[in-house]
Amino acid sequence: MTGLSAILIVVGLFLVGGIYSFVQQEMPKSLIVLLSIAAAMCLVAGVVRLEVWN
Asked: If you placed Cys at 46, which of 8, 11, 20, 51 could pair as Cys (CB 3.0 to 4.6 Å)?
């Protein structure tokens, strides 16, 4: 696991926690969707960069 992939996965998990928090606070749905897209992109980028796939 490289450093960048670990950082991307950690940031993605941090954003997932933010999604949970925003849902609990009943924030606007558009903000939650935007945060969900960002979290998904970070997690997917981190997983794709793992050296397991080579």
From this structure: 8
Read off the pTM.
Answer: 0.85
Which domain range does residue 30 map to? 3-49
The pLDDT assigned to 51 comes to 77
Distance CA 29, CA 34 (A): 9
How big is the CA angle at 13 (ends 35 and 2), to the nearest 5 degrees?
120
Residue 35 lies in a domain: yes
- Give the rounded distance of the alpha carbon of 46 from its chain centre: 9
* Other Cβ atoms closer than 10 A to 38: 15
